[in-house]
Amino acid sequence: MVNVSSQDLGSAHEAGFPRAHEDQVASLGSRFDVGLSCLLGVGTLVLLLATMDDFGMTWDEGFTVEREERLKEWFARVAGDNSPGVRAWSPPMSNLESRADYLRQAGPRAASPWSRDSLRFFWPFAREEPNGHPSFYALIGLGGWVAGHRFLAPLESYRCGPAILFALTIGAIYGFMARLYGRPAGLAASLVLLTMPRVFAHAHLASYDAPLLCLWFLAVAAFSRSVEPTGRGWAWVFAFGIAWGCAAATKFTGWFVPVPLVAWSILQRDRRGIVTLLVGGLVAALVFYALNPPWWFEPIRSLHVFLQSNLGREHRSPIPTQFFGQVYPFSLPWFNTLAWTAIVVPPITLALALIGITKVVAGRLRDRGGTLLLASWLFLMVLRALPGAPGHDGERQFLPAFVFLACLAGVGVAALASGLARGVPGRFARPLAVVSVVCAVTAGAWTTWLHHPLQLSYYNALIGGLSGAARAGMEPTYYWDALTPDARDWINARTKVGQSVMVAYSIPTFDYLHHWGLLRPAPFPSRANPPQWYLVQNRPGILRSYPACALDVDLLGHARPVFVKALGIAPEVPLVAIFAIEDAAAAVERERER
């Protein structure tokens, strides 16, 4: 349970509580903190659900939903329901194994949902690309669908599970930080994470990055409790193993959860930490194995294929990225994580985190909790900066680093509250800490609202906002999140019956939008459905790299769009532009003349 700090007990003594009643005061404080954790979690979930429909369906969500649909059918078949109504719809742009191929290869074995062929078809996870990610993120999403599909639209119901997990994590962050550093630090850490614009956007999506952030933090928090001599160590050891196993079963990055914890245990000479890692590692391995049924038949071969798939992405599925004006085929320069952090986190939060880092380092790492948070943050920053690490999609590939940055900002608030920051007189320390929390949260919330629902295009004032970032050669957008409901409404209202829309590279996301009626014209032109509009996403890394996108570049440079989705504070930077098909045809002619 969460306990009040000695500072809180001191305040209770000054208020007239007798020392004989310290346990009662601690109990009251514990109940208050648990209640506040729950309030923060519930409030976060209400906020996420209220804004769930505001975001465009992103690039990866189509792939996510398709896999969850297959899992849904598998569970129905396990329950004995083989009716046509449970069959998963297959998007035309699917890159998964087709049902016809599955039935032809499986033959009579297709009748059993437990056969090797059925598990491979219905569980397309943790193997060769494009199925490199493990399955737990899809199970989270499917659980959210079960909880929310009766009162939410299809897309929002698939987003519900990750949102619930994120809301629970916000509450857990408060409890963890309040226990170690006091309530102002707990409030600061939880709320500045929630109001980081890009993190706020990711928390809404049916994807794997926000769940990985949550599971990584929960694993570190459980590890922290397991190494304390509280008498409940084994419960926390198993909690750590389960959280680590779920993180590893969400994304390959989750396999690296224990690396900073090993370094911390060696640095602190903590035997309990080593025991936790050994026992928790066994639990995590069992959890991962249980959550990936296709591995049940061939665990060794499956591990080999999984590692080959995830360690060889540079050669199998490289995604180019524009970074400060230069296009990189796969990885970015070593300093990319530092640069991204400096320009996509609100400056006040950065300042508080810097104070927290300084406090931990200046204390020569004697602060065990702070050292653990710092080690986790540093490791994630280094991991994404390594040669061969995927560099696309801005902050997305190292999103878990931001939860530890938020916690370090909480440590910074605690440093201010205790007067440890240089030049802060003692009588001003606590008010300064409160003011810093209010300013950080207010600034983050205002910035998040100002960019809503285009927070994935947020850049802070250090680079001049989105306008400055575009001038510096950064990608304005990358995830199709800017095809928001109002943009789709414009298309739906102005597309003639029988005509379609066209993009340079279609993905299952567009198929699902059309299937659910959110994008009425077909996203794949044909003779029967000729295109009326051409859609362009302003993602220079891909537009400058792929010959198929030459038309997009020409249109953005020479044609006038009929509709532009842009930030109100940066109207000169298009995120998604819609062009008449006649303009696209004229651009093709210009290209031929060249």
UniProtKB/TrEMBL annotation:
Record GO biological process: lipopolysaccharide biosynthetic process
GO CC terms in record: plasma membrane
Alphabetized GO MF terms: pentosyltransferase activity
Annotated protein name in UniProt: PMT family glycosyltransferase, 4-amino-4-deoxy-L-arabinose transferase
Primary location class: membrane
Organism encoding this protein: Singulisphaera acidiphila (strain ATCC BAA-1392 / DSM 18658 / VKM B-2454 / MOB10)
Parts of the chain that traverse the membrane: 34-52, 135-153, 160-178, 208-227, 233-262, 274-291, 338-357, 369-386, 398-420, 432-450
Signal peptide span: none
InterPro entries per the UniProt record, alphabetical: LipidA_mod_glycosyltrf_83 (IPR050297), RgtA/B/C-like (IPR038731)
Compartments reported by the entry: Cell membrane
Superkingdom of origin organism: Bacteria
